[in-house]
Amino acid sequence: MTATEHVAIDAPASLEELWMPFTANKAFKQSPRLLGASHGMYYTSTDGRSILDGCAGLWCVNAGHGREPIVRAIAETAANLDFAPAFQMGHPLSFQLATEVAKLMPGDIDHVFFVNSGSEAVDSALKIVLAYWRARGQPQRVRFVGRQRGYHGVGFGGISVGGIAPNKAAFEAQLLPHVDHLPHTHGINENFHTRGQPAHGAHLADELEAIVAARGAETIAAVIVEPVAGSTGVLVPPVGYLERLRAICDRHGIVLIFDEVITGFGRLGAPFGAQKFGVMPDMMTVAKGLTNGAVPMGAVGVRHAIYETIVNATAAGIEFFHGYTYSGHPLASAAGLATLKLYRDEGLFERANDLAPYWEDAVHSLRGLPHVIDIRNIGLMAGIELEARDGKPGARGLDALIACFNAGLLVRVTADIVALSPPLIIEKGQVDHLVETLGGVLKALE
Ligand SMILES: Cc1ncc(COP(=O)(O)O)c(C=O)c1O
User: Fold this and answer.
1) How distant, in Å, are the alpha carbons of 56, 101, 157, 270, 364 from that of 350?
2) Residues 93, 157: one domain?
3) Quick check: CB of 259 below 6 Å from ligand 1?
4) What CATH number is associated with residue 372?
5) What pLDDT digit, counting tens, does each position of 307-344 carry?
């Protein structure tokens, strides 16, 4: 069998024992949606239907599914070097991957710390920042600034700096103590149905000055934002907003972290949001597209001076007491190397950039359909916001997701926002099909 032949895995005998993440377990198990194979732009459901992937799995399969060079790299590495310890030992692949990732990251972000997910990347980044300020002799810089509607994974650090109430509700008693939040940039009336970056809202970055005034710059370690907030429904930064955030951080010596777990690896038609928007962060968190989703992996990229400051603060011995058993795992590193080569060989970031105007026209053609209150897009991502049902936020969104799945289209839904982010290999005809299918679903939706 070649790597690209795909045989759908059978449905399991029991659904009961698995506790599913971020899922309405009881409802799902009564009416499951199971994917049994993936190839190119499509999944195959366990009942044998072809499902167009409108969200790159979960924003991660940027090169499309089942790509042969990635499959081969994983298989060969599993046979040759299944595992190598990462503490006080190394293996070539993680070093090679760090070199490639550093080449892709902007400016002097030239050191890379490997982890296994976006959540671990964020919590690692927050720890790196604290270690950095301590090494620089400013240990009182402990405060983090996140943003409302930010998603930074599910670690305690990530949910603390994140701005999603339900993700924190059960854990409020034990969140990180010194965290403030900027306002999100969404909901400005003039910005509805914007193509690309909205014109209004750069001033919202000035809230950082207010936080600095209230807390004192000398207490603030870092600001963390997603260049485009993905998980809360594709919130594109207003023109000038990120630039202003950067300028305020510079004025007060605050580290700026871009969480590029979704915006990285071509999603915006550039390697990262940093290049797309021309704004240079001090640190970046990535995951997902790093390995095309094929093996779990994340990373933190840091500017030269941050790495140097931390490692030079210790005369001898371990400089940073942090890491994971699977940091830079051989299979993940091999998948990452093959993925980055595939992105390069096929020019997928440029492809996404070229296709973006077509994508924009296509998604905005849904304007005026029932329930649609806003459409926004950038690169190869889009958010279609639906009006919530009275007293039942999220119900219409979930119905849309289920109806799309039944109609052969996989979308991601956050509350009542349909998020689209197809693999970067999507063809124009598939864009048309995606939009037609979603349009048909919206017309039929209660
Ligand atoms: C911006 C951002 N940060 C962090 C995460 C967490 O990543 P993971 O689910 O791999 O832990 C995500 C996941 O969607 C994300 O979008």
Assistant:
1) 17, 17, 34, 7, 22
2) yes
3) yes
4) 3.90.1150.10
5) 999 999 999 999 999 999 999 999 999 999 999 999 99
E strand or H helix at 151: none
Give the predicted TM-score (pTM) of the model.
Answer: 0.97
The crossing angle, in degrees rounded to 10, of helices 68-80 and 330-345 is: 150
Is the CB–ligand 1 distance for residue 258 below 6 Å?
no
For a mutational test of ligand 1's pocket, the pick from 261, 262, 413, i.e. the residue with the most ligand atoms closer than 8 A to its C-beta, is 261
Q: Which two tokens mark 446?
A: 């209660």
| Local mean pLDDT, 10-residue blocks, the chain (446 residues) | 64 96 96 97 96 98 98 98 98 98 98 98 98 98 98 98 96 97 93 96 98 98 98 97 98 98 98 98 98 98 98 96 98 98 98 98 98 97 97 96 98 97 98 98 95
Please indicate whether residue 119, judged by its CB atom, sits closer than 6 Å to ligand 1. yes
CA distance 9 to 34: 9
Domain that holds residue 296: 71-345
Closest to 217 in 3D by CA, of 255, 163, 271: 255
153: Cβ below 6 Å to ligand 1?
yes
**Cα 353–Cα 357–Cα 359 angle in degrees, nearest 5:** 95
pLDDT digits (tens, 9 = 90+) for 150-203: 999 999 999 999 999 999 999 999 999 999 999 999 988 899 999 999 999 999
Domain count, the chain: 2
Count of residues making up the chain: 446
4 in a structural domain: no
Contact by Cβ (8 Å): 268, 228: yes
